């Protein structure tokens, strides 16, 4: 069964008239009828009931039409996207970055590639909270988001691609009473105030940390922050300690002391995520170049 046969079958199934279908397809009615018969013989199915000039679908034909319709639509979209890429794409590519996350090591080469090879694609960036990223990906207001894996895990409407297998750190102002220690673990933080992101912005983040503290034998004293930037600011100001991933800019603040937490039950790795229903042709081009850039960075590190 070929793509052409599927197209012809679906056209007859929609019109329920071989003459009209043949006119729409630009073929002769005998040619169309012969192809449908060949298809029925190949599949060993009767697809249509022909009674004089009347044509109707058999139950098997209706089932096949219902299932082949979406497949044929996806095929057409895939071909269209590939053709757009080949002849040069244009339009907007909107990218969201989780608040406080740095992308300066891998993003500039990708932007340079687009400026050179796809100058008619306008790439824009915006910082967003957890909740904003999810809402804007869902509505396709953003094409791609860079965020931590645990915040998008299990969301079936999203496709994700790992950028970096990150880890979490305990972070505190360098004047904090625990900052002078060589090592600090969650067990050492029983009496500390934890600054956490609000559940309204990211329910997973605080619930994971609370559960980890409970496994250490205590329920943490919590100060909730409405955004990651507020969380970072309160940590900088010495209002408490926090847990952030290795991609967070706070880790590079010389006034912040950080302690590796090791492997936890959640995955704070940096990922790129996009909506399955977003058919912006610039997305696959961007992801291909992201993969190349990350591989180049890895190769350069391995040579050192």
SSE layout:
Layout lengths: L2 H13 L2 H8 L3 H15 L4 E4 L2 E4 L1 H29 L3 E8 L8 H11 L3 E8 L1 H9 L5 E5 L9 E7 L3 E6 L19 E5 L5 H13 L5 E5 L2 H9 L5 E4 L10 E5 L9 E6 L6 H22 L1
Parallel strand pairs: 3-4, 3-5, 8-9
Antiparallel strand pairs: 1-2, 5-12, 6-12, 7-10, 7-11
Structure description:
By secondary structure, this protein is of the alpha/beta class. The protein is 42% helix and 22% strand. The chain starts with a helix and ends with a helix.
Residues in helix, % = 40-55%
Give the termini separation.
53 Å
Which word captures the global form?
Answer: elongated
Sequence of secondary-structure elements: HHHEEHEHEHEEEEHEHEEEH
Q: Mind summarizing the main beta sheet?
A: 5 strands, mixed
In total, how many beta strands?
12
Low-confidence stretches: none
Content of β-strand: 15-25%
Radius of gyration: 28 Å
Give the structural class.
alpha/beta
In short:
Helix content is 42%, strand content 22%. It is of the alpha/beta class and 304 residues long. Strands 4-3-5-12-6 form a 5-stranded mixed sheet.
Structure keywords:
single chain, 304 residues, alpha/beta, five-stranded mixed sheet, three-stranded antiparallel sheet
């Amino acid at each position: 069964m070929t793509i052409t046969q599927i197209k012809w079958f679906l056209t007859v199934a929609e019109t329920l008239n071989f003459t009209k279908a043949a006119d729409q397809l630009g073929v002769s009615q005998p040619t169309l009828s012969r192809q449908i018969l060949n298809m029925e013989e190949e599949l060993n199915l009767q697809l249509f009931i022909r009674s004089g000039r009347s044509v109707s679908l058999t139950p098997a034909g209706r089932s096949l039409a219902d299932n082949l319709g979406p497949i044929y639509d996806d095929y057409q979209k895939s071909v269209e996207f590939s053709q757009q890429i080949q002849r040069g794409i244009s339009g907007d590519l909107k990218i969201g970055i989780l608040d406080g996350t740095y992308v300066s090591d891998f993003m500039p080469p990708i932007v340079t590639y687009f400026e050179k090879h796809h100058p008619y694609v306008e790439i824009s960036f915006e910082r967003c909270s957890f909740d904003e990223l999810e809402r804007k990906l869902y509505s396709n207001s953003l094409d791609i988001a860079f965020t931590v894996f645990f915040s998008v895990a299990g969301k079936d409407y999203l496709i994700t691609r790992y950028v970096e297998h990150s880890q979490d750190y305990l972070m505190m102002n360098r004047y904090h009473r625990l900052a002078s220690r060589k090592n600090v673990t969650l067990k050492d933080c029983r009496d500390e105030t934890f600054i956490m992101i609000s559940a309204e912005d990211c329910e997973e983040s605080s619930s994971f940390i609370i559960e980890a503290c409970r496994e250490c034998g205590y329920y943490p004293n919590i100060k909730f922050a409405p955004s990651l930037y507020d969380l970072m600011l309160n940590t900088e100001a010495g209002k408490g300690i926090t847990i952030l991933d290795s991609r967070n800019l706070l880790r590079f603040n010389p006034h912040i002391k950080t302690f590796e937490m090791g492997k936890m039950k959640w995955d704070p790795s940096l990922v790129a995520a996009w909506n399955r229903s977003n058919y912006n042709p610039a997305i696959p081009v961007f992801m291909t170049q992201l993969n190349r850039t990350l591989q180049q960075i890895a190769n350069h590190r391995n040579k050192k």
